[in-house]
Design a protein that fits this description.
363 residues; mainly alpha
C-alpha cells in the first residue's frame, strides 16, 4: 500500500529555512546563561543594599555633626534634630553593624566557594583579588563597597547588556585617557629633567657613554661595516679598473715620471752624446716613462684593491672605530649633543597634549 502523499510524515514535518536556523542560533547565543544571570541578580541586590546602607550612614553622619546642630538652631528645628539623635541614631548604627556582619559572612562564604571550586591558583589569592570588599568591611572604609559596582558593570557588559549609553561611555573613556595622559606626561617630564641634570656631571656623562658603547659595540661595528661596504668599497673597487678616478691617478703618476725623466740633467747630458738619435731617444723614453707610470698604478690597484683585500680593510676599519677610546673629547661632545637633542625632541613630543585633538572637546 502506497502512503498518501498528503498524509506522509515527511510532508507533515516542516523543515526550518536556513535563515530561521541562523536567527534561532543567534538568539540562543545572545541569551545569557542562567547561572550568570542569577549571580548578576544577587550582585544587584547586594549593590542596592550597600547603596541604602551608605545613604543612611551619610545622612546619619551629617545629622550628628555640629554643622547640623548650628543649622537646626538657625532654622528653629532643634527639637526634631534632637529627636532623631536620641531615637533613630542608635538603631541605625545597630542596623549598620548587622549589615557589616552580613557582608563579612557573605565574603567568607564566597571565599569558601572559591576555594572549593579552585577559582584561583592559590586559596589565599581571594582577599587580594577582592581587596576592596575586604577593606569595605571596616566601618571607616564603607565607601569602598561601591567598587562592586564596577564588577557588576563588567559582568553586565560580558552578558551583552548596555550598562550605560554609548555617549556616556565615550565621555568617561575620554576623561580617563585625559587623566592618565596628564599623569604619565608629568612623570615622564620629571624623569627627563632629572636625567638631564645627571648628564651635566662629566663623570656621569662619561660613564653613560662608555656603558652605552660597550653594550652596543657589536651592533656599532656591524653598522659601520655595512656602511663601509655600501659606500666606500664600491669606490675603491672602481679604482681597481680603468675608471675615471683610476685613469686620473694613473695619468698623474705617468706625468710625474715623465717630468722626473725630463728634469734629470744627467740623463739628458748622456742622451745628447748620442748624435742625431739622442733627442728622439729622450722623447721616446719620456713617453715610455708615462706608460710605465700608468701601468704601475693599474697593476697596484688590481693587486691591492681586489674584493678580499677591500673587505678585510673594511672589517679592520669598522673594528677599529667600534673599539675607539671613548675618552676622546670630540666624541664625548658629539654623543652628548646627540643624547641632549634626542631628549629635547622626546620632551617636545610628550608636551603635546593629545587629548586636545579629540572630538570630545571643541577647542
Amino acid at each position: 500500500m502506497v502512503p498518501n502523499p498528503t498524509t506522509s510524515p515527511a510532508t507533515d514535518t516542516k523543515k526550518p529555512l536556513p535563515n530561521q536556523l541562523q536567527d534561532s542560533s543567534k538568539s540562543q547565543r545572545s541569551r545569557p546563561p542562567a547561572p550568570n544571570r542569577l549571580k548578576l541578580t544577587y550582585d544587584i541586590v547586594i549593590l542596592m543594599a550597600i547603596s541604602i546602607d551608605l545613604f543612611f550612614i551619610s545622612i546619619d553622619a551629617i545629622l550628628m555633626s555640629n554643622f547640623s546642630n548650628n543649622v537646626a538652631n538657625w532654622l528653629t528645628i532643634s527639637e526634631q534634630l534632637s529627636w532623631y539623635q536620641i531615637t533613630l541614631h542608635d538603631p541605625l548604627r545597630t542596623a549598620g553593624g548587622f549589615f557589616t556582619i552580613f557582608l563579612i559572612t557573605e565574603l567568607l562564604v564566597r571565599w569558601a566557594i572559591a576555594i572549593k571550586e579552585q577559582v584561583y591558583y592559590r586559596w589565599f589569592f581571594f582577599p587580594f583579588v577582592h581587596w576592596y570588599e575586604v577593606l569595605g568591611c571596616f566601618p571607616q572604609l564603607r565607601a569602598l563597597r561601591l567598587f562592586r559596582a564596577v564588577v557588576i558593570g563588567r559582568r553586565l557588559y560580558q552578558l551583552g547588556y548596555q550598562v550605560l549609553p554609548q555617549p556616556w561611555i565615550r565621555r568617561i573613556r575620554f576623561y580617563i585617557d585625559l587623566l592618565l595622559e596628564e599623569l604619565s606626561d608629568r612623570v615622564i617630564l620629571t624623569t627627563i629633567n632629572n636625567y638631564k641634570q645627571q648628564l651635566t656631571d662629566p663623570e656621569m656623562r662619561q660613564s653613560l657613554i662608555e656603558s652605552t658603547i660597550a653594550r652596543n659595540r657589536e651592533d656599532i661595528e656591524a653598522a659601520i661595516l655595512s656602511l663601509l661596504r655600501q659606500e666606500v668599497a664600491p669606490q675603491l673597487q672602481k679604482l681597481a679598473g680603468k675608471s675615471n678616478a683610476s685613469s686620473t691617478i694613473a695619468s698623474a703618476v705617468g706625468h710625474a715620471i715623465q717630468d722626473g725623466l725630463a728634469n734629470t740633467p744627467e740623463l739628458r747630458r748622456y742622451l745628447r752624446l748620442i748624435p742625431i738619435a739622442g733627442s728622439l731617444i729622450e722623447s721616446q723614453l719620456q713617453h715610455i716613462g708615462h706608460s710605465i707610470g700608468e701601468n704601475v698604478v693599474y697593476s697596484l690597484n688590481a693587486r691591492l684593491l681586489d674584493d678580499e683585500r677591500i673587505d678585510a680593510l673594511m672589517i679592520a676599519i669598522a673594528h677599529g672605530i667600534a673599539h675607539i677610546n671613548t675618552s676622546n673629547a670630540a666624541l664625548e661632545t658629539l654623543l652628548s649633543n646627540i643624547i641632549a637633542d634626542s631628549l629635547n625632541e622626546f620632551e617636545a613630543q610628550i608636551k603635546v597634549q593629545q587629548w586636545k585633538h579629540r572630538d570630545m572637546l571643541n577647542l
